[in-house]
Amino acid sequence: MLRRGDRPLGLAPASVRDYRELARRRLPRQLFDYIDGGAYEEQTLRANSDDLAAIGLRQRILRDVGDIQLATTVLGQELSMPVALAPVGLGGMFAQRAEVQAARAAAAKGVVFCESTVSICGIEEVAAASPEPFWYQLYVMRDRGYAEDLMARADAAGCRVLVLTVDLAVVGARYRDTRNGMSGGLNTWASLRKSLDLVGHPAWVRDVALGGRPHTFGNLEKAVPGGSTPESFKEWVDAQFDPTVTWDDLAWVRAHWPHRLVLKGILDPDDARAAADHGVEGIVVSNHGGRQLDDTPSTISALPAIVEAVGDRLDVLLDGGIRSGLDVVKALALGARACLIGRPWAWAVAARGQAGVEHILDVLRADGGPLQLEAARPGRAPKRPEQRHHLRLLARRDHRLLRRRVLRLRAQPLLPRHARRLEAGEDRRTTEREPSARSALGRRSPVPGPLLGRHTSSRSRLLLPLLPRRARSGAPRPAARLDPRPLA
Ligand SMILES: Cc1cc2nc3c(=O)[nH]c(=O)nc-3n(C[C@H](O)[C@H](O)[C@H](O)COP(=O)(O)O)c2cc1C
Description:
Radius of gyration: 23 Å
Largest sheet: 8 strands, parallel, barrel
Number of strands: 10
Helix content: 40-55%
Mean pLDDT: 80
Strand content: 5-15%
Distance between the termini: 30 Å
CATH topology of the largest domain: TIM Barrel
Shape: globular
Bound molecules: flavin mononucleotide
Number of domains: 2
Structural class: alpha/beta
Number of helices: 23
CATH architecture of the largest domain: Alpha-Beta Barrel
């Protein structure tokens, strides 16, 4: 389904990536980039996929795989396979009443849908349309009264799992959204270009702009009376993310939520232990799909230590970069109980609505393949790392890739010393190879290090004159002019 040369006939989408391409064609650029993009230079976004791809599977043969059971129980809910649809804000701008379509698709395929606080369809609309219970995702808002009301609404709608997102105390800067004018503050010419981007996609205009109204945030209508577009809700939402939230606030959530509680956005074993100590029933190892802090570890590389720390105390789920059944297999084999998918369902619903979401769930189920499924049977992932014989990293190169990310993290306390050495010009090698060290100095280069360093390839050298002078010199980029804070 991709570029002409990539496909024989391109008659039908086969994979999640095909749906990404279909969504790219159908959606206005600003919406496609809102889904597709990540924070800052998108290093974490890329790492999520790259690190999954770097893990190889051990192939075993002639083992009876005639009785593969994918069904599992996650947070007390029976699922036909260990997959859930992650909370994705603004869904109803990608397809007509997209949250309803996604919830129906999840129910049809026996998995669970998680409704975002900043959805277009409200909790009640999804509950009325969905034949199965779904999960509800909440941010800790400054307006605690409103959050309490949301929890009561979710409870009344039959939700039995609350997913509390804890990695959004401060919203990550998403450069693509700023460049596309998603943050507002546009002059007339820019507003016109933004509108042309919308009307240049007639299928989307017909389906969503005209057919998918109202475009309010269904869960937040009471907070913004009279708001009729996502923009009119943005100011309220932006003001509601609370940077003062601490572990103590969990007691308040517990007081208002009588069912299972999950913390989403855990990347560190110490935080995972704290979550278990606070008695939550589950955690999602997540970096918000690379949309929050950049230069954090990929979720798959963070997973083993977290499973080691708390895998026997609560359900450990993972999201970030899951694009195929094989990715699910790898996460399960490293100890996850289930995986959530974010962008995959957003692309699929944008491209083909409910049928698209059902199709990608079928694809995830099928493309694991019986051998891999045997390796990763739910509940069969061994707890101790030395017993994880199901999985092995195939090449030394792969080992190094994962280790480098872990080492980079461990190096964090050393950064001030690094910084001093770098400022004194003593450690040129580190400057070239260690982008995280450079960003700690506030001097991240707008082009990858090797392009500027002594490893510059002859091809890159040819390209250098084409880059803006600032990029060639490695000078810091100017501060963004527009408010870079997106909605979710
Ligand atoms: C367009 C978009 C909107 C999102 N909105 C929310 C949200 O409202 N609440 C939340 O907890 N996470 C949100 N996320 C993060 C997802 O729940 C999930 O962590 C992430 O998408 C997983 O990575 P993946 O997209 O690579 O599967 C959003 C992600 C995307 C792509």
